[in-house]
Design goal:
The protein is α+β, with helices and mostly antiparallel strands and 282 residues long. The chain folds into two domains: 45-84 and 193-279, no CATH class; 88-188, no CATH class. The chain has two helices and 13 strands, in the order H-E-E-E-E-E-H-E-E-E-E-E-E-E-E. It has a seven-stranded antiparallel β-sheet with strand order 1-2-9-10-11-12-13, covered by helices on one side. A hairpin with a 2-residue loop joins strand 12 (254-265) and strand 13 (268-279). The longest helix is centred in the N-terminal third of the chain and has 54 residues, at 9-62. The N and C termini lie far apart (105 Å).
């Protein structure tokens, strides 16, 4: 008869107690490290979201129509910035070609004189289509919103060899501001006549949002009540601030936009501040 060998009940209990003690010690040692790792990952995620949101806003502002950026403060919890976006731009013919007088002459755009057709000296992007808008020499901030220096594209033709890269025909004769000598035009997409970023902050916690609002017909005057919409740029907002300072002068040739954004998720919070110089020369 073979004798069976094994552990007694007492031995098993002793082993279980020892393993439990060791596991408890390991948990106490590893738990802070794991919590720290999760907190760092959470803060890194919030930082990435805030950085992407601020860079998106600044990137669009830098390509906007000069002198179109305006700021509205509705309340301590709500504020917004509005600007007119662009999709293309280039140079237009300001005078006849006196060097090659024997070549066919193109259509010029003279500020202060009604114009229906003008030639471009640079290629127009294929994304520019009829009903898009052309703006020239936006010196005063609210002119582009009121449509003072804006024409609507009817057709885009060309290129015409030795004459023009493209020929733009407007729906109606448009008089662009007199005295402008920059020779540059910008194209505004018809689907986005203006863009507004609205920040809504809660009284506490990270339940606020920044939304991007577009697809509306802009008003000549700035917003008194900031608009809202479903297109959320970033959520979990606990703090935000839009500050815009223009340099002094008739054309506000430059400005400085400062953005502050704070995000909160659970017990973790991050705050980023980002600024950008805004070129306002038409």
């Amino acid at each position: 008869m073979t004798r069976q060998r094994g552990f007694t009940l007492v031995e098993l209990i002793v082993v279980m107690l020892i393993v439990g003690i060791i596991a408890g010690v390991l948990v106490l040692q590893l738990r802070p490290a794991m919590q720290s790792y999760l907190a760092i990952r959470q803060r890194a995620n919030l930082t990435s979201q805030a950085d992407a949101a601020l860079r998106r806003i600044i990137g669009e502002v830098r390509t906007a129509v000069p002198n179109s950026l305006r700021y509205s403060w509705e309340s301590q919890q709500t504020q917004c910035i509005e600007f007119v976006p662009t999709k293309d731009g280039g140079r237009f013919r300001t005078a006849q070609d006196y060097t090659n007088v024997n070549q066919p002459q193109g259509a010029t755009l003279v500020p202060g004189v009604p114009v229906t057709t003008f030639d471009t000296l640079t290629d127009v992007d294929p994304t520019v289509v009829p009903r898009d808008l052309v703006v020239v020499g936006n010196v005063n901030r609210d002119d582009v919103y009121a449509g003072t220096d804006v024409g609507t594209i009817r057709t885009i033709a060309g290129p015409t060899p030795n004459v023009a890269r493209n020929t733009i025909t407007l729906e109606t004769a448009t008089t662009f501001p007199a005295g402008y000598e920059g020779g540059r035009f910008l194209v505004i997409p018809q689907a986005e006549r203006a863009v507004t970023y609205t920040c809504t902050m809660p009284t506490s916690g990270g339940t606020g949002t920044i939304v991007r609002v577009t697809g509306y017909t802009p008003n000549a005057a700035p917003w008194k009540t900031c608009p809202t919409g479903p297109a959320i740029l970033v959520a979990k907002v606990s703090d935000c601030s839009f500050l815009y300072h223009e340099s002094q002068g008739a054309t506000q040739q430059s400005g400085y936009l400062q953005l502050r954004l704070g995000l909160t998720d659970g017990d973790e919070s991050v705050t980023l501040t980002m600024g950008a110089h805004v070129e306002n020369v038409p």
